[in-house]
Specification:
CATH class of the largest domain: Alpha Beta
Strand order of the largest sheet: 3-2-4-1-5
CATH architecture of the largest domain: 3-Layer(aba) Sandwich
Strand content: 15-25%
Helix content: 40-55%
Number of domains: 3
Order of helices and strands: HEHEHEHEHEHEHEHEEHEHHH
Distance between the termini: 62 Å
Radius of gyration: 24 Å
Number of strands: 10
CATH topology of the largest domain: Cobalt-precorrin-4 Transmethylase, domain 1
Number of helices: 12
Length: 303
């Protein structure tokens, strides 16, 4: 759950208290991802003027509204309530009411169920607009120091190792920078799985963006995985950014030849599993590929 940093309440003016009635429709309002100072004036004016606010968690949004002395009806609209609330919100708009849609933090519809509401409003020819603002995805991209000309937002990573590895396999040839959300307790395992499938690519772990303890740790997947495995789970909200693949066919062929030589030497002194892990770590190659190659090299010669 996102943290809302406390600030001194901001007094409202007579003008905002007597704000003109908003046009009936849906207003997608981005909220801060941590620092309340990042909210826009337009977002505040809209939240003060709409008839109702649809939000993930009324407690989280309540803190935001209280900080700016806004009193407004809130309706919980999240993954588990979306199906039941959607007809209610649509009816409100059709009856001439204005509805603001917010998430706990950041831009709505990014990894939450809001798109179905937008789709339904648009299909009925009702008014819908968006108020741009903070986004953890874009903020992490700007901090990571990795290519930003093409990127793929992958949402939340699967919780189980096999599912996570399959998730990465589906994107291993993608030439876009990858961005995804991860929980602190699964961060080390997630980074290990990414390295196993994707190889030892450059990456960045962005934590607590815009908050007091904001931190960006840059490195390769293997070093980052080892760091968080040794240190334990970090605190706060986490976004992982992984560089795109840069290997072409000729480079791969040359790399395989060099890797094979290293692997043959390693197998003279280590088990298949240990040799594969060792070579994958020092070369940055995918661990599963090295392991398969080690199995082949360790087979006894046919007579």
């Amino acid at each position: 759950m996102a943290e809302i940093r406390s600030v001194e309440p901001v007094p409202s003016t007579a003008a905002t208290n007597q704000a003109a009635r908003m046009k009936a429709g849906l207003y997608i309002v981005a909220t801060p991802i941590g620092n309340l100072g990042d909210i826009t004036k337009r977002a505040l004016d809209t939240l003060k003027a709409v008839d109702v606010i649809a939000c993930e968690d009324t407690r989280i949004t309540g803190k935001l509204l209280n900080a700016f002395l806004i009193k407004k009806q809130m309706i919980a609209y999240h993954e588990h309530s979306a199906a039941g609330r959607l007809p209610q919100l649509l009816q409100m708009i059709e009856d001439g009411k204005s509805v603001a849609l917010v998430s706990d933090a950041g831009t709505p519809l990014i990894s939450d169920p809001g798109y179905r509401l937008v789709e339904a409003v648009a299909e009925r020819g009702l008014y819908v607009t968006t108020l741009p603002g903070a986004s953890a995805v874009v903020s992490a991209l700007t901090l990571a120091g990795l290519p930003t000309n093409r990127f793929l937002f992958m949402g939340f990573a699967p919780t189980k190792t096999k599912a996570r590895q399959d998730w990465f396999v589906a994107e291993e040839s993608n030439t876009a920078t990858m961005v995804y959300y991860e929980s602190a307790k699964r961060l080390a395992g997630s980074l290990h799985d990414a390295q196993t499938v994707l190889g030892d690519r450059r990456a960045a772990v962005c934590r607590e963006i815009s908050k007091k303890f904001e931190q960006v740790v840059r490195g390769n997947l293997a070093s980052l995985a080892n760091r968080y495995e040794a240190e334990g789970p970090p605190k706060g909200e986490i976004v992982v950014v992984i560089a795109p693949t840069t290997t072409n066919t000729s480079d791969a062929a040359k790399f395989d030849l060099e890797t094979s030589k290293i692997l043959e030497l390693a197998l003279e002194h280590m088990s298949v599993k240990s040799a594969a892990a060792f070579v994958a770590e020092i070369t940055g190659a995918r661990k599963k590929d090295i392991y398969q190659q080690a199995l082949e090299l360790s087979k006894p010669p046919k007579i």
